Amino acid sequence: MVISLSTAGALLLPVLQVCAQGYTNVSEVPYYGQSPPVYPTPEGTGGANPAWRSAYTRARSLVTQMTLEERVNVTRGHTGLCVGNSGNVSRLGVPALCFSDAPDGIRGQEFVSAFPAQITVGSTFDRGLMYQYGKALGQEYRGKGINVALLPVGSPLGRLARGGRAWEGFGADPYLSGAGMGAVVDGVQGQGVIGQAKHWLLYEQEYRRLPGSEGESISSNVDDRTLHELYAFPFMDALHAGVASVMCSYNRANNSYASQNSKLLNGVLKTELGFQGFVTSDWTAQQAGVASANAGLDLTMPDGGYWGDNLTEAVRNGSVSETRVNDMVTRILAAWFHLNQDQGYPEVGVYNYNVQHPIIDVQDDHASLIREIGAAGTVLVKNVNGTLPLKAPRFLNIYGYDAKLPDSPWTTPSRYGGGYDVNFDWHTFNGTLVTGGGSGSNTPPYIISPFQALQDRVIRDRGTLRWDFDSVNPTIYANAEACLVFINAYASESFDRTTLTDTFSDQLVQNVATNCSNTIVVIHSAGIRVVDAWIDHPNVTAVVYALLPGQESGNAIADVLYGDVSPSGRLPFTVAKNESDYGELLNSTVSSGPFPQSNFTEGLYIDYRHFDLYNITPRFEFGYGLSYSTFSYSNLTVSAISGVNMTEYPPATTVVTQGGQPALWEVLFNITVTITNTGSVAAAEVPQLYIGIPTAPERQMRGFDRVHILCEGHATVTFPLTRRDLSVWDVVAQKWKLQGGSYPLWVGASSRDVKVTGSLKVAS
Ligand SMILES: *[C@@H]1O[C@H](CO)[C@@H](O)[C@H](O)[C@H]1NC(C)=O
Ligand SMILES: *[C@@H]1O[C@H](CO)[C@@H](O)[C@H](O)[C@H]1NC(C)=O
Ligand SMILES: *[C@@H]1O[C@H](CO)[C@@H](O)[C@H](O)[C@H]1NC(C)=O
Ligand SMILES: *[C@@H]1O[C@H](CO)[C@@H](O)[C@H](O)[C@H]1NC(C)=O
Ligand SMILES: *[C@@H]1O[C@H](CO)[C@@H](O)[C@H](O)[C@H]1NC(C)=O
Ligand SMILES: *[C@@H]1O[C@H](CO)[C@@H](O)[C@H](O)[C@H]1NC(C)=O
Ligand SMILES: *[C@@H]1O[C@H](CO)[C@@H](O)[C@H](O)[C@H]1NC(C)=O
Ligand SMILES: *[C@@H]1O[C@H](CO)[C@@H](O)[C@H](O)[C@H]1NC(C)=O
Ligand SMILES: *[C@@H]1O[C@H](CO)[C@@H](O)[C@H](O)[C@H]1NC(C)=O
Ligand SMILES: *[C@@H]1O[C@H](CO)[C@@H](O)[C@H](O)[C@H]1NC(C)=O
Ligand SMILES: *[C@@H]1O[C@H](CO)[C@@H](O)[C@H](O)[C@H]1NC(C)=O
Ligand SMILES: *[C@@H]1O[C@H](CO)[C@@H](O)[C@H](O)[C@H]1NC(C)=O
To answer: Within 10 A of 353 (CB to CB), how many other CB atoms are there?
Structure first.
């Protein structure tokens, strides 16, 4: 059999160039557009973690009993009921593992919940809810006997304003994304389900994400420091939380496919970050057989890809070592043992939609959590003179296609939200948008539309409703107390957005506002939606970003509009005044030719860092969101934690634990502030800590919390700062480096609304 070496050859070229430039030690190369070789793959051992070590012992004893064909079978996918099915070895009790989407709910199945998308979970800025979300998802995946849940998402991070999948992540900040990644992994794996953090790495655009007739995939070219401080950062939290598998991405990274990028897989992931689990290819992302095996890929999906019999042959002829194949299988089985799935895991209960099958209802009472997260993730950005909350109105006008249920949402069997089709190019979704399109789309058991939930409230208040979901210039009933306009902004896997607005919706809002002095706009958006066409209209009295709230959409927005919940959601991205304000960070790169290149020349300066650097005033900054109450901030204190090592680099250790050097996770300082509720309602507030790391971007978020405070009450919030939070990646030393000197601190209600300041000092 012929093993494809074409892309492996391409991988070697940059190395030769590096050598020709006189570098002798690849770890000192400040690479950019070149991916240095790192071989061989470190064998998984369990590292310093006793539970992982015990899982490895059990996995090894099984692997030694397996024939080469059986071992190779475990490293590939097979057609089956699940989105992915690994090979089984029934004589040794090794089952076919079942892999399933989506990050916001099991896709394509019945009696499962449709959770909010991660962008809504990110906008809660609430670690507790992030954990509860992961736990509830884990319960559902476990209930259906799914071994591996393809979540959470840390890449795309949200580099591009128009990126088609940015809504699948927690938001455009590595600290926020990392908090979400860690908490969701804790939650999902706490239920015994293997989490699969994705997509490793630098997957920031849909355009040319896959190779095709035009040539290879886009190459995300990024410098080593940015790679660590921005893009690998959130994955560190997932690894630290113990994530047992990672999915590699479709794109090339520094000109080497992510599925065979030895620097990213063998180097950063398995050496530097001590990853003990297994790496799965994204579906059809494998591009070569020997190259991917040796670069650190452990499992190819959804079929044999370039492996199967080819891998057996490659081992027989010495192209891939038997040690490497054993390590692949050991890593897969160790993850299975580590999550105790050998001890009575439920049978796979996944079925095709078009056959009759048993009911396996895994919904539990997750609807109430979905409703809570939906409301907590709702971001109020304009509220003139206390327009909101509504005060038991007797008469409402309701407008817009997003207020109603869509006519026929199941555009592919069982999937809400459609997607994939590049020619689709929808800007909006005709019906209420509760998730985006593509593989991240979920399958709601039902949807409470905004109209349904508002109608229930109005009925309770013995009121009257008038509605028009279709017209761009609807009739206004002058006796109504408010006009609610529901619009959305759609995005999907497989294509990037071409606009952050749309003419129909903007005209609808303007037409209503022209005739209605109390116009309230609700936006369900799969990412950024610019609003400058009408945001300053004097009759637009309130504006809410409700993002992607899942099946309880209507109840969640009604809870906020009626004041049962005071809004505390914060924007997990920057909303610009003009789309052009995003500059190079607006569109995907469309460089043509067989080897398209996307140079991340902005380095660390994405989202709010970009607006800060160029002094561009956004419409609504990262972290922004209003409340029904008001808060005062006081008494910022800084306490250095005694007894921890504040050396420039983490103390040398050979100990391997997931997430990198253990010292990176040590808390060095606690910052506290006191928040007082000075308004008239009990409400939650989301204080955020921004720090200035010497030689880094001026302001980066390194702490947040969501606290409920009673009227006239106060709360003390603590932001623990770890060594990692205060370090930069030293590209020469290849270590996280604590900067000596003074770090300015800003604590406030957004990235620009600073309330109290201070500083901390690290001895140099
Ligand atoms: C490989 O796995 C598949 C799917 O579980 C199974 O049907 C097949 O028998 C296995 N083949 C070998 C050689 O073990
Ligand atoms: C496992 O493989 C055996 C053959 O070795 C096959 O009969 C069985 O159906 C497979 N089970 C699953 C779950 O794939
Ligand atoms: C093996 O390699 C051949 C030739 O490149 C390819 O056609 C085949 O799909 C590969 N995969 C498997 C599972 O045999
Ligand atoms: C808001 O209140 C201020 C002060 O009472 C008043 O001047 C202004 O006209 C009000 N705006 C609206 C839109 O009602
Ligand atoms: C939504 O679909 C309805 C038909 O159900 C149609 O009348 C309406 O024009 C569509 N709205 C938009 C904004 O495309
Ligand atoms: C973004 O892409 C659109 C086409 O979708 C193009 O018209 C526009 O010029 C691009 N803008 C920038 C800043 O690259
Ligand atoms: C605001 O609404 C009122 C009432 O319908 C209308 O008379 C007025 O012209 C509107 N203002 C603007 C600026 O459109
Ligand atoms: C990307 O950066 C490389 C290395 O600096 C440079 O050679 C190349 O021309 C750049 N490509 C584009 C499309 O800007
Ligand atoms: C300020 O905060 C510190 C630490 O929480 C606390 O010990 C101190 O009492 C607070 N001082 C005031 C004036 O609130
Ligand atoms: C701190 O780390 C340095 C460098 O590894 C080491 O020499 C020193 O003993 C450590 N100190 C403490 C208190 O652990
Ligand atoms: C620092 O904060 C953490 C987390 O809130 C807390 O557990 C710890 O006790 C604090 N340490 C000190 C010394 O204040
Ligand atoms: C390469 O550089 C790293 C970091 O400077 C150093 O630790 C390592 O020993 C060097 N390796 C060789 C082979 O010189």
So the answer is: 13
Residue ranges with strand state E in 619-693: 631-640, 667-677, 683-685, 688-691
Alpha carbons 714 and 138: distance in angstroms, whole number: 35
Q: Name 538's Cβ contacts closer than 8 Å, sequence gap at least 6.
A: none
Count of CB atoms situated within 10 Å of the CB of 704? 22
DSSP letter (8 states) at residue 498: S
Q: Give the chain's domains with CATH numbers.
A: 1-29 (no CATH), 30-338 (3.20.20.300), 366-576 (3.40.50.1700), 629-762 (2.60.40.10)
Taking only the tens place, the pLDDT of each residue in 326-355 is 999 999 999 999 999 999 999 999 999 889
Give start and end residues of each alpha helix (H) in 461-566.
503-515, 553-561
Instruction: Look up residue 729 and give its two tokens.
Output: 């990646």
Q: What is the DSSP code string of 569-585?
A: ---SS-B-SSGGGGGGG
Atom of ligand 9 nearest to the CA of 716: 5
Catalytic residue at 282?
Answer: yes
CA dihedral 615, 617, 620, 622 (to 10 degrees): 0
| Phi then psi dihedrals of residue 640, to 5 deg | -75, 135
Q: What is the pLDDT of residues 468-519, one digit of tens each?
A: 999 999 999 999 999 999 999 999 999 999 999 999 999 999 999 999 999 9
User: How many residues does the structure list for the chain?
Assistant: 764
Q: Whose C-alpha lies nearest to ligand 2, atom 5? A: 90
- Summary mean pLDDT of the chain: 94
Calpha distance 123→121 (Å, rounded): 5
Q: What CA–CA distance (Å, rounded) separates 664 from 294? A: 29
Distance of alpha carbon 667 from the chain centroid: 25
Burial tier of 313 (Cβ tally within 10 Å: 0-12, 13-18, 19+): middle
Q: Is the pLDDT of residue 708 over 80?
A: yes
H or E element that contains 369: helix 366-376
Residue with tokens 């066409």: 533
Parallel, antiparallel or unpaired: strands 631-640 and 707-709: unpaired
Angle, in degrees to the nearest 10, between helices 174-189 and 127-143:
40
- What pLDDT digit, counting tens, does each position of 6-39 carry? 333 233 323 222 322 333 333 444 568 899 999 9
Residue 507 beta carbon below 6 angstroms from any ligand 3 atom? no
With the most atoms of ligand 2 within 8 angstroms of its CB, the residue from 90, 336, 350 to mutate is 90
Give residues (CB < 6 A) around ligand 8.
33, 221, 591, 597, 599
What is the Rg, in whole angstroms, of the alpha carbon atoms belonging to the chain? 26
Q: At what angle do helices 127-143 and 366-376 cross, to 10 degrees?
A: 150
Structure tokens at 452: 């349904």
Q: Give the closest residue (by CA) to ligand 10 atom 14.
A: 645
Alpha carbon 463 to chain centroid, angstroms: 41
Pairing of strands 688-691, 741-748: antiparallel
Average pLDDT over residues 229-240: 98
Cis ω for the linkage preceding 152 (within 30 of 0): yes
Query: Dmax of the chain from CA atoms?
Result: 82
CA–CA dist 402, 485 (Å, integer): 8
Q: 284 CA distance to ligand 3 centroid (A)?
A: 13
Residues 82-88, mean pLDDT to the nearest whole number: 98
Query: Residues 299-333: pLDDT tens digits?
Result: 999 999 999 999 999 999 999 999 999 999 999 99
